[in-house]
Design goal:
The structure holds two protein chains of two kinds. By secondary structure, chain A is of the alpha+beta class. Chain A has a single domain, classed as BolA-like (GMP Synthetase, Chain A, domain 3), CATH 3.30.300.90. Chain A is built from three helices and three strands, in the order αββαβα. Chain A has helices at residues 4-14, 46-57, 77-87; strands at residues 18-24, 31-38, 67-74. Chain B has helices spanning 8-19, 36-48, 61-71, 89-98, 100-104, 119-134, and strands spanning 22-26, 53-56, 78-81, 84-87. The chains are: A alpha+beta, B alpha+beta. At the A-B interface, helix 2 and strand 3 of A face strand 4 and helix 4 of B.
């Protein structure tokens, strides 16, 4: 059963230049709420942004992760470089 | 795995999406939603008084599977408008709160909104189509 911290780390590791806040809102380890801010989201529609995050978890969504409620936001163009430095996320492979 | 050419469930879903301007795939029915996210999405649509078709994905797990294959979206509910995926509960909520949802669904904001919900008019069609293909 994933923890909120694991979910956060996986999102940040998989999507470059990303900061995530994740909350386990039932405490049961299967309903999460995430706010994800990423420079990678710039120029993408909300649907595409959410798909990127869902894509990190594949079949786990609807399985062990019963619900992952998302709020996504593209990092402003000017803030993008700063976030990249702070986070030095590994390239998604 | 199920990438074959004849896939009646996938075809029925695609057809339902094509045939209804606004269609919601949900858990349960608008009158008896089986999940909080579906219930919330229905409530928002109803408060906009937008006619919509609804398909319950629970009767057969393949409906959800095929739907997600078509849409690339893993969770339920899923709202489509004019053949395009609008989103799940989170996105619909954001759009509802910003007023964007009414616009996207092609509603005239203001006086043109119908006086009564027209939900039930188109809803059974969605059900029937999917179920016909399953039986």
């Amino acid at each position: 059963m994933p923890t909120a911290e694991e979910i956060k780390q996986r999102i940040e590791a998989a999507i470059p230049e990303t900061q995530a806040e994740v909350e386990d809102y039932t405490g049961g380890g299967d309903h999460f709420r995430a706010t994800v801010i990423s420079a990678t989201f710039a120029g993408r529609s909300r649907i595409e942004q959410h798909k990127l995050v869902y894509g990190v978890f594949g079949d786990e969504i609807g399985g062990p992760i019963h619900a992952l409620s998302l709020k996504t936001q593209a990092q402003g163009e000017s803030g993008a470089a700063t976030a990249a430095k702070q986070h030095a996320a590994p390239a998604a492979t | 795995m199920s990438d074959s050419d004849s896939n009646p469930i996938r075809d029925a879903i695609a057809e339902a999406i094509r045939e209804h301007d606004t269609i919601l795939f949900m858990k349960g029915t608008p009158d008896a939603p089986a999940c909080g996210f579906s219930a919330r999405t229905v409530a928002m649509l109803q408060s906009l008084e937008v006619p919509f078709a609804a398909v319950d994905i629970l009767p057969d797990p393949r409906i959800r599977q095929e739907l997600s294959t078509i849409s690339g979206w893993p969770t339920i509910p899923q709202l489509f408008s004019r053949c395009e995926l609008i989103g799940g509960c989170d996105i619909v909520t954001e759009m509802y709160e910003s007023g964007e949802l009414a616009e996207t669904l092609g509603l005239e904001t203001g006086e043109d909104a119908p006086a009564q919900p027209v939900v039930n008019e188109s809803q059974p069609a969605g059900f029937t189509q999917i179920e016909n293909h399953l039986s």
